[in-house]
Structure formats: structure tokens, C-alpha cells
Amino acid sequence: MKKFMNPSQYGPGEQEPGNGFTGRAGRGHHGHPHRGGPHPQGGHPQGEGCGPRGGGPMGGPGSAFGPGFAGPMGEGRGPRGGRGGRRGPGRGRKGDVRNAVLALLAEAPANGYSLINQISDRSNGLWRPSAGSIYPALGLLTDEGLIAPVEADGKKLFELTDAGRAHVAEHAEELDEPWAKVAEPHRGFLDVRGDMRQLGMAVEQVVVAGDADQLEAARKILERARKDVYRLLAGDAPAE
């Protein structure tokens, strides 16, 4: 592998074919940050912004910044988009990104875009770091002498240095699958995520193909289901 003389040449300029990935996190298609909750122009469903308070549908999974913040209703937001409520998967500490980068580079050299995808894949989509967190982490680790930019087949990658390999060996327990530590507290959400998606698809079919009576019936079903779930939280048996 050929060493780069100027490690500052990497950056969030790697482009994902077809999706306009530019490495700029937290910006919607209007150029301003999006928050969870209804879009003023009707452009996004609740919690599905394109910025740090959005992520996947209803907030949580797919959020850009890592563990500890944006839950199913948005980043630290209650059922109606207000402050409060438990925080779900979302923004992470810089140390989490650092450990994930070191753990992955211990397996093979990679570029920033590949690291983002690998972390997302290994956390089942619960943690997808933004370019704004990955590239500063790469820069810091380069400055510390733990990683170095290299060239392989015309691509800019990063690999561990001798000091980096020694650091990984010394902190093996700390660096053991940091993405698993993100997913574990949200295992229950992973279990029901498929059911939520299927329910949403069924409702969408009613909206698209059903008549007014069917749509009203679907709304009543959803309202009963919502109340039953809250009864579970309150310790009451749902109505039959």
C-alpha cells in the first residue's frame, strides 16, 4: 500500500452513487436542519426529518449520530414532539465512534463511507454515524498516530499503524464490538420494528385503495390499539 504524504486530503467528499451523499450531516433538502415532528410544508411525517432529529421512520433506527439519543418519537421527544420521554438510539459520544473506527480498522483498512455503512450494518441500523462524526474521529486518530491514510487500488483508505495495533491489543475488551452495546438496550424495539412496518404498510393500502368508511374504520382500529398499548404500560389488561 502506498502511503499518503498529506493526510488532510481525506474528507466528507466521498460520494455514494445515486443518493447525493456529500458528507454534510443534519441538513434537509431545504438546506436547514430538520426536527422531528410535522414538517411545516407537509414534507415529512412525524419524526422523519432528514437531519439529526430524523433518521428512520418515526425517528429512532437509522438515526445518524450513534447511541443514546433519538428514540422512536424523535430525539428526546415525547409522544407529541415535545421535550421529555426516554431517549432511544441516536447521537453517540465521540468515544463510541472512536472505538468503532479502531475496531473495524483492526479487521481491514477502510474509508470513511465504508466505516459508516459497516457500523450501521452491525448495529442492525440502530446506529449510523454521520460523516460529521466519522471524519473528525479519523482526523483525531491520525493526529494521535494510531491510524494513517493509505492508497489501495486508487482508493484512499485508513489503516492502523503499529501504535494503533498496540493500542487495540491493549484495549481489546473495551473495543469488542462497540456497536453491539448500542443495539442491546433497544433489542425490544428491534423485535417489534417489523410488526410496526407491516402495520404501516397495511394502513397505507387502506389510505390508497379504501373508501371513506374503510379509512374511518382503520382509524378506529389504530386508536384502540394505541389505547391498549398505554393500558399495558399502566398495568391494566387491554380491552378484548
UniProtKB/TrEMBL annotation:
Signal peptide: none annotated. Residues 44-82 have a biased composition (Gly residues). Residues 1-95 are annotated as: Disordered. Residues 101-169 form the Transcription regulator PadR N-terminal domain. InterPro entries: Tscrpt_reg_PadR_N, WH-like_DNA-bd_sf, WH_DNA-bd_sf. It comes from the Bacteria. Residues 26-37, 83-92 have a biased composition (Basic residues). Gene3D superfamilies: Winged helix-like DNA-binding domain superfamily/Winged helix DNA-binding domain. This is PadR family transcriptional regulator. It comes from Luteococcus japonicus.
